[in-house]
Design goal:
alpha/beta, Rossmann fold, four-stranded parallel β-sheet, 16 strands, signal
Amino acid sequence: MKTRVLAVAVMLTTTACGAQIAADTSAPAQGYPVTIRNCDADVKFDRAPSRVVANDIGITEIMFALGLADRMAGYTVDHGQDRGIASSPWKADFAKVPRIAEDIALEPIQGANADLVFAGWNYGFNETKGLTPDSLKALGVQSYLLTESCRNGVGKQRGIMDPLEALYTDLRNLGTVFGVRQRADELVADYQKQVASAQNLPANWKRPKVFLYDAGIDQPFTSGRNAGPQEIIAKAGGDNIFGDLDDSWTTVSWESVVQRAPEVILINDYGNGPADSIEAKKQFLLSHPALASVPAIQNKRFYVLPYAALVEGPRNPAAIVEFNKFLTTS
């Protein structure tokens, strides 16, 4: 796969006669090409991308955590995530890099003159709206797929490895692609230490059953075993009641929630207005007649984490530590 050559990136060299000619950018850069494995496919890079467009808050924060803000042409995040940006450890980078759109699409990607789009299936890429790695390839733009979103061969189900390993894989892959592998390895080591700090559970610990409530009125949207909340719950000392589902983010039924009798409900805070507020979600769950017998409802045992901490991203390890403190002290 050839990297798109951008006119703005053409460098001029001066000959002995004083004439200027364009440098040969078709040849691989020093230290390149590099090939990484992304969603079970080998992807080759002849040089480090310099005009990246990242979609969604967690994906964008992966770039920022690697120190790659200067490699970005922009990001796309809807304004419902403004509160997530305001609370981000990389708030300064969000302010520095332009937000080119709320919803990723071909037009803003082309307008940003992107040479790489970092997104994922249902994290921006979608056949229905015609934005896919193949459609970008036809325009000469490379793609990197978020590993949490990789399809596993069963329809459109997603997830090919444990969620934390997906995060570490993306950090290492991108570290290789952008020539910052040492930084990536240091981040992975630091995150592994954070996760390990939450593993000292009390003696005779009984794992509480946890239901991740993302959204949904008629049917709840939740996390199977391949999305971030699976390991946030498990590493913190809980048991995801839908951890047997071989998918990432997926829809279930209220009947199945009742049958699995969660003792804790972990709420995904999108931060996007009164109708989807934390309080609105709690009140909906407390007033749902079918849930009246559920232990978490009877005991009003809720915990809230922001969207950016639950989707794959560099806030995942800290979320494990936070949720572990809640489970072991409340």
